[in-house]
Amino acid sequence: MGTDNLHHKRKAKQVSRLQRQNAKRKPYDKVLIVCEGEKTEPNYFNELKDHYEINTANIEIDGNCGSSPKSVVNHAINLYTKECDTDNGFDRVYCVFDKDSHGPAYEYAINKIRELNLKNVFYAIPSVPCFEYWLLLHFELTTSPYSATGRKSVGDLALSELQHYFPEYTKGSNGVFLKLIGKLAEAKTHAQLSLKEAKENATDNPSTYIHELIEYLQNIKNL
User: Residue 12 pLDDT > 70, yes or no?
Assistant: First the structure.
């Protein structure tokens, strides 16, 4: 059963890549988004792509790299390098990952992107503690730091707060972007304020850069 599932995943990935290659690229950036989550983040960004009618040949969203920030960055580098061998490489590469309790793997990811000698190509899009904090900002501005308590990780705590406002949400949910689109502008404002306060306090807990990626995608056709 496991082997069959792996075969189907590989086949689906090959078909998706072939469809992108056959599609005609529009005259704006070609972007790669590599996500830590296999479903949650890819689902969200695919819904955003469809909503803003971003051409399939201009964007690749990949969540097939494991749950470690280190694996996200390394996978992104591999995909970027492969496309560089063609005449249709990526203009930008976004690495979307959580800090949560990853520790050294998170620091590796942040530092690796800083070390890359590819100006304005690779971008880190971290969320602290996790992607659910970005979703929470659709409902309220909270800048209280997260600390693990008992058996609950910082990610678990952020998820619980989100479910207070959005009880039907679970990891891997479909339709999240469209359900929250009416609150998107507010979430972006909250994210900017949260990030500003975090920097002023010399911390990253809590903070997110998801709004910067969304702003770019919203305007990609005009860049």
Answer: no
Q: Which tens digits make up the pLDDT trace of 136-194? A: 999 999 999 999 988 899 999 999 999 999 999 999 999 999 999 999 999 999 999 99
How far is the C-alpha of 44 from the C-alpha of 42, rounded, in Å? 5
Q: What are phi and psi of 97, to 5 degrees?
A: -155, 165
Cβ neighbours around 48 below 10 Å, total: 22
Measure the CA angle with vertex 2, ends 105 and 171; round to 5°. 50
pLDDT value, residue 19 = 52
Counted residue by residue, the chain has a size of 223
Domains of the chain: 26-222 (3.40.50)
Tally of CB atoms within 10 A around 64: 13
Q: Around 201, how many Cα atoms within 13 Å sit in the side-chain half-sphere?
A: 14
The secondary structure of the chain in percent helix, strand, coil, rounded to multiples of 5, reads 55, 10, 35
How far apart are alpha carbons 65 and 72 in whole angstroms? 6
**Which tops the pLDDT comparison, 17 or 51?**
51
What pLDDT score does 119 carry?
Answer: 77
Other Cβ atoms closer than 10 A to 31: 21
The whole-angstrom separation of Cα 210 and Cα 207 is 9
**Cβ atoms of residues 170 and 132 within 8 Å:** no
